Amino acid sequence: MTFHKIDNDSINSITNALDFFQIPPTNVSISSSKVFEILPSNPLTDTPYHFKIHASQNYIDLTKCYLFTEFRIRKENESGQLVNLSVADNVSPIQLIGQTFINNMRVSVNGREVFNSNSLYAYKTYFSHELSYSQNAKSSHLNAAGYFYNNTSTQEGGLDTIERRRLFENSKTAQFIAKLDADIFNQPLYLINHCEVDIEIIPND
């Protein structure tokens, strides 16, 4: 039987489903891995927030970059002072607050800008999660980023609104962790060594 290859230089191979006797190879390309916590280089009271991954001899797996956040909702009383919410206050954040609190994100590698969301980051990440993930994902691990599945056609009164409201009852502090949603963080290749990565995050007002 004659096969027509797209690239004549491509070597022949067979599917694993028919390879009964070949022992699968062992990945020996990675000798060790580490996880680092990177804090913002400026105070949280000053925006934008800057994160810097300094150049080193290590390769970087950008698909494993997560942003850890803490939020609390308070209100102003008649005197203009911030006070805690009461049980009667019907307040909840928007969906996916661990990501949609971001207004704009810029990513630079060695001083060259490679990503700029142009103040549309919240819309980009919301629609990508809304349209790309299954109901099972929305009802499980996406909860960690503040996304809860909406079981109704309305924005208010659904299970998602109730769950998000419960997180902040009586001005409790809620924690979220979410992946950074930019093209360079959504591809499988490692970033080569001796590259410095600058991440600038501007929150929504």
Write structural notes for this entry.
The strands form three sheets. The protein has a four-stranded antiparallel sheet. A two-stranded antiparallel sheet has the order 2-7. A two-stranded antiparallel ribbon has the order 3-4. It is globular and about 80 Å long. The model has no long low-confidence stretch (mean pLDDT 92). With 205 residues, it is α+β, with helices and mostly antiparallel strands. The chain is 14% helix and 21% strand.
Secondary structure elements and pairings:
Layout: E1 49-53, E2 66-71, E3 74-76, E4 82-84, H1 97-100, E5 102-109, E6 112-116, H2 121-132, H3 135-138, H4 159-167, E7 174-179, E8 197-203
Antiparallel strand pairs: 1-8, 2-7, 3-4, 5-6, 5-8
Q: TL;DR?
A:
The model has no long low-confidence stretch (mean pLDDT 92).
